[in-house]
Every structure is written in structure tokens, then in C-alpha cells.
What we know:
The complex is a heterodimer.
Chain A: E1 2-6, E2 10-14, E3 19-21, E4 23-27, E5 31-38, E6 44-50, E7 56-58, E8 64-68, E9 73-78, E10 87-95, E11 106-107, E12 111-116
Parallel strand pairs in A: 2-12
Antiparallel strand pairs in A: 1-4, 3-9, 5-6, 5-10, 7-8, 8-9, 10-11, 10-12
Chain B: E1 4-7, E2 10-13, E3 19-25, E4 32-38, E5 44-51, E6 57-58, E7 67-73, E8 76-81, E9 90-97, E10 106-107, E11 111-115
Parallel strand pairs in B: 2-11
Antiparallel strand pairs in B: 1-3, 3-8, 4-5, 4-9, 5-6, 7-8, 9-10, 9-11
Amino acid sequence: AQSVTQLDSQVPVFEEAPVELRCNYSSSVSVYLFWYVQYPNQGLQLLLKYLSGSTLVKGINGFEAEFNKSQTSFHLRKPSVHISDTAEYFCAVSPNAGGTSYGKLTFGQGTILTVHP
Amino acid sequence: GAVVSQHPSRVICKSGTSVKIECRSLDFQATTMFWYRQFPKQSLMLMATSNEGSKATYEQGVEKDKFLINHASLTLSTLTVTSAHPEDSSFYICSAGRRVGNQPQHFGDGTRLSIL
């Protein structure tokens, strides 16, 4: 089984400041890792994913995340945020091996990022 | 990119009504569709996994007779909330993908269900 913990439920930040949204996971098997963004009353949009290879992955809208296997973390970062980045962000994992859970996403609790002018 | 269409976006109805929500993958064949439920200020909870042409697999605690799922084609899955009650009010989101772990799921825009 997998579990995902997003350490901050809310992160307020000023426009053009850097931001880091933290995500830790627990799993008995190897996993793929994802970050999704959700705007109010909408579904989820994929920001980026880690499958294998380089531990630093770049996504859309200037976001990037770094996979740290020893710390079981996958923190999301952006060097300079915009007002339009205000949304809720979800970290998720999926088993990368076969079995009945293959392809299923387990989500963290979400982090609401609020960018102030 | 891949697009998933979910309809309706909002439903308000009386207690006891059955409500059907459709999820369509518009530009790819989705061998698997997932149905999630999201309560206010909470994360997404997987309700069931739907594979084309076979019965859905429900997560523990989800009533299969309450939440009927049909995945009749590679582009359409439906979720019917039968005899809905106020406690069924929630945000329901579908996603479509292939049952391959490294392929990201593509999400619909969700359905806000309000039972009076």
C-alpha cells in the first residue's frame, strides 16, 4: 500500500517569490510520482511526473520537482510565482510494478497555494 | 493533449433521485477509467476502477449497488448514483488512462452533485 503526506495544507506567498510545496510518500514497492494542480471547481491537470532517470524533473508553468529516494520525498518548486499559480496542488504516487494496484493513484491531502500581490 | 469530458458539470436534485454522470475520452482510447470523490477541503478518494467490457472494481467501503459504473466502450464510462441522499453530495471526478502505471491519468472537470 502507498500513502502520501503533503506537509503543508496552506502556503501563502507573495508574487515573484520562490515557493516549495513539500511531499513525502511511503510505499512497499517502487512508485511513479506525480504533481497535479486543481483550480476551483475543476478537475486535475498534470504538472509533472517522475518515472525514472534524472531525479530533477521539469514540468509546465515553470514548476520543477526533485525525487529524493533516501528521504522518500518529491518536493515541488518554482523560483518565481505568479498570481495565476493560486490553486490547490496534489502530490500522487502510483505503483510501478504489476498487480491489482497497478495504475492506481494515491493522493496527498493537497496544498493550497495562495499568491498575494 | 488528451482531453476528458465529464458531464454534467453540476447537478442539483431532490433526495431519492438517481443521477448519471458521463465521462468521455475525446482523443484516445481509455482502457481504464477511474472514478473519484472529493469532499470539501479534502483530497481525492478513489471509488472504483472501470475497465472496458468488464465489471468495475470498487474500493473498500464503496457500495457497488449505490454507485453503478458502466464502461461500455473505450471512450465512455458512466457513474450512476442511485437513490441519492444528501450525504452523497460531493464533487465527483473521473479520469481516463491506460492500465499502465507510467502513463498519467487525464482528468475530467468534475461534477458537483448537490442533493436537497
